[in-house]
Amino acid sequence: MSGIHHVTAIAGKAQRNFDFYTRTLGLRFVKRTVNFDDPGTYHFYYGDEAGQPGTILTFFPWEHAAPGRGGVGQTHQTAFRVPVSSLGWWTHRLTEKGVAYEPLEKRFGESVLAFTDPDGMSLSLVGVPGAETEAGWSQGGVPAEHAIRGFHGVTLLLDSAAKTGAILTDVLGYKEAAREGSIIRYKATAALGGYVDIYEAKGFMTGRQGRGSVHHIAFRAADDAEQAAMAKKLIEKHGMHPTEQLDRNYFRSIYFREPGGVLFEIATDQPGFAVDEPVETLGQQLKLPKFLEPHRADIEKVLPSLESETV
Ligand code: ZN
């Protein structure tokens, strides 16, 4: 199964990020942990009920992060899937919550409702035929019939698509599916997180990462063996230098910066988010990996407080 595993972005205030994704967009808070490389910072995971690959949007909320700037070498937009018939409901929802949105537009024949989160991250809801038959999380204040069904895909803004496209098709399980203007669409086998669109913008200004920017995009590998085979191909055929495998507790990952400048990750589907707490109570407790557990008291002292009662 190929497709996006998760998308990780940079946020400002933790509470504001939590409120927007759980209370405005109605995603489930799947995991409350810390950035394993910077344990004084939260790492929040939002997704569907069980946090399936293809539904997970994660954030590092850095209270004082400088705002990012969109541009070449950055993820331009992150898109969620909703039923086609729900787009009208969402325009009311966003208005009621004070979120400005763009007029509905058509991309590759699909209706796209674009808006930004409180840190300026570019998001959209795409009406996908058939999405109404997929289960939606309904405990976040959004009725199940209108709930976000996971990712539709991401749009990357790159100087040139060729080398990145070669990695998507040769290593990550995507196929070139369509072209529209300067955008090339690549499609994977998974319905969730199945699209990567590359917007070729030669000569555009380079972006700068900060609050509201995507930090990296993770693609799926079924298991360690598939991930190792993908790493081998990246090294031998594409001149990439992926990292050693890192244990992220909920998945195991390698990272590399793709030729267009975006940080890519390949994450295993296993073991998933129920590895350290039951699905029924995901996200309620601060979870730490074993190596940080001895420092729990110090970590809890420096993390911002979070009012996380679900509505
Ligand atoms: Zn990641």
Care to give the gist of this entry?
It is built from 5 helices and 16 strands.
Describe it:
The protein is an alpha+beta fold and 311 residues long. It has a single domain, classed as 2,3-Dihydroxybiphenyl 1,2-Dioxygenase, domain 1. Helix content is 17%, strand content 33%. It has 5 helices and 16 strands. The strands form 2 sheets. Strands 2-3-4-1-13-16-15-14 form an 8-stranded mixed sheet. An 8-stranded mixed sheet has the order 6-7-8-5-9-12-11-10. The longest helix has 15 residues, at 224-238. The radius of gyration is 18 Å and the shape is globular. The chain starts with a strand and ends in a 9-residue tail after the last helix. The mean pLDDT is 96. Bound molecules: zinc ion. Zinc ion (ZN) binds next to strand 1 and strand 13.
Number of strands: 16
As a whole number of angstroms, the C-alpha radius of gyration is 18 Å
How many domain regions?
Answer: 1
Q: What is the first-to-last residue Cα distance?
A: 34 Å
**Class by alpha and beta content:** alpha+beta
Low-confidence runs:
none
- Quick check: average pLDDT? 96
Largest sheet: 8 strands, mixed
Per CATH, the superfamily is 2,3-Dihydroxybiphenyl 1,2-Dioxygenase, domain 1
Q: Which CATH architecture would you pick?
A: Roll
Number of helices: 5
Specify the overall morphology. Answer: globular
* Bound small-molecule species: zinc ion
- The CATH topology is 2,3-Dihydroxybiphenyl 1,2-Dioxygenase, domain 1
- Portion in strands: 25-35%
